[in-house]
Amino acid sequence: MARTPISRIYPYRDAQLIQFADSLCNSAERDATQLQAYGVSATNIADIRSAREAFANYPTDQELYGDLLHTGQERDTQASLLAQALRQICTRAQLAYGSSSSAYRLYHLGPISALSAQELIRASHYICPLAQQQLAQLAPQGLTATIIADTQAIATTLDTLLDTEFSIQQQRQAATHHRIELGNALYILLIPISEKGKLCWAYTNEARYNDYLLVPSQP
Q1: By residue range, what is the domain housing residue 36?
Q2: Alpha-carbon span 187 to 192, nearest angstrom
Q3: I need a labelling partner for 93 at 20 to 30 A (CA). Which of 11, 162, 189, 191 fits?
Q4: Is residue 130 part of a domain?
């Protein structure tokens, strides 16, 4: 099921939200006695710190992108190896049957380097069994069962990497959504403490009043 789109309700970067949470909690703990008159308790502050930790410790998109990038690089490496392995088999078939023969036509993939990872996997699924069946005819060109098995193993590795890459992409989308949820939840907790702190110091201490501003330009 597709997730409902979600937007940040806090008007600054994630790192700034964490900084504001730390600053606000420190100010509220300092002013705990005065804030009691506005219903601010140690439990309220503890809830903010807990939400802050959940948000700060959740994987960032940069971290998840790093995993995706690494998997993509591994995918490209294995795709290149599979292309090379298939070329070894197909060229031997060309030598055995001749490039114009109907037997070789089954091995002809065109420019192998132009094939996508998925296309290389699909090609391996019929070329490797075919080569195994015709091993007696291809063996004089140096083809062995080991070469075929190694090609199949590379294809399996590549297929697994594609699955992993898709899974990370899905996780990244879900994680981005959840991180925004965590940030919004933290910001919602900050708002009443900010308002009560400003109300407490509005007419008596400008410096402490400013400690409860969630954005520098906030009146």
Answers
A1: 14-59+177-210
A2: 10
A3: 162
A4: yes
Report percent pLDDT > 90 for the chain: 78
State how far the Cα of 45 lies from the Cα of 23, in Å rounded to an integer. 11
pTM recorded for the entire structure? 0.65
Instruction: Output the CA angle 178-197-186, nearest 5 degrees.
Output: 5
> Considering the domain boundaries, does residue 199 fall inside one?
yes
Please check whether residue 138 is in contact with residue 96, taking contact to mean a CB–CB distance below 8 angstroms: yes
In a domain, 40, yes or no: yes
Report the C-alpha gap between 24 and 153 in whole angstroms. 56
Q: What are residue 33's phi and psi, to 5 degrees?
A: -65, -45
Indicate whether 4 belongs to any domain: no
Q: Rounded CA gap, 108 and 112, in Å?
A: 9
CB 150 within 8 A of CB 85: yes
Domain count, the chain: 2
7 exposure class (CB count in 10 Å sphere: 0-12, 13-18, 19+): exposed
pLDDT in tens, 25-37: 999 999 999 999 9
Residue where the block lists tokens 């100010």: 27
**155 and 202 both lie in a single domain:** no
- Using only C-alpha atoms, what is the Rg of the chain? 31
